Amino acid sequence: MQTISIIIADDHELTRESLAVLLDREPGIEVVGVAADGRSAISMAKSLKPTVAILDVNLPLINGIQVARQIRVDSPHTGLVMLSNHDRGEYLKEFMRDDSAGKAFLLKATLRNTRDIVRSIEDVTAGRTVLDPAMVSKLTSDDGLRLNGALKNLSPRELQVLGLMARAHSNRAIAEALFIQPRTVEHHISSVLAKLGFNSNGEKHGRVFAILTYLESTGQLPVHESELEHGTDFVSPIQMTA
Length: 242
What we know:
CATH superfamily of the largest domain: Response regulator
Shape: elongated
CATH topology of the largest domain: Rossmann fold
Largest sheet: 7 strands, mixed
Number of strands: 7
CATH architecture of the largest domain: 3-Layer(aba) Sandwich
Order of helices and strands: EHEHEHEHEHEHHHHHHE
Structural class: alpha/beta
Strand content: 5-15%
Number of helices: 11
Helix content: 40-55%
């Protein structure tokens, strides 16, 4: 198994140093650098090309959202874990705006132990999108994004497709499950995004919004399999694969 290299950027010394020590103890994870501000984090990510960058939203000099955006330019394959003390929906939407794959947005208050964040690191490394459940309603309700029954405008087939998307099925897997052609699946997905008003968000980001709307409307927010066994719901990983 390839080692996951990590950089941590947080302006609170105790937070970043403690997190670095804890993560360094985890098998398969190596903390290769820590930074106290956004400018240093960008420089570090550009030179080290880490597997994952863990960022605080409110970094000095350059905030975490801008840092994340620049890291994706300098190191496109670096996964991003954003930590926040605030459940402000605008932070989440700005973070997810350009590309949602390989990103996690977590509230510090909900982190219970090291395993919580390790699980999110593993998910973003695999290209998944991870959202703290407390933030899901922010994506679907802030600024009029709650669609109040918009799912009723979808056809039965479109609802089937959206339901399979929410269960992390790829387009090919959806086609096989419904005995239709992949191109037909693409047509249904385009129609779903258009009807839900997310077709202007870019395909991957629109898919995230559509899935969140479905999960919010049906009360089926997914959790990690290990958490299903223990009855907890720390984060909701949504794997976006075509």
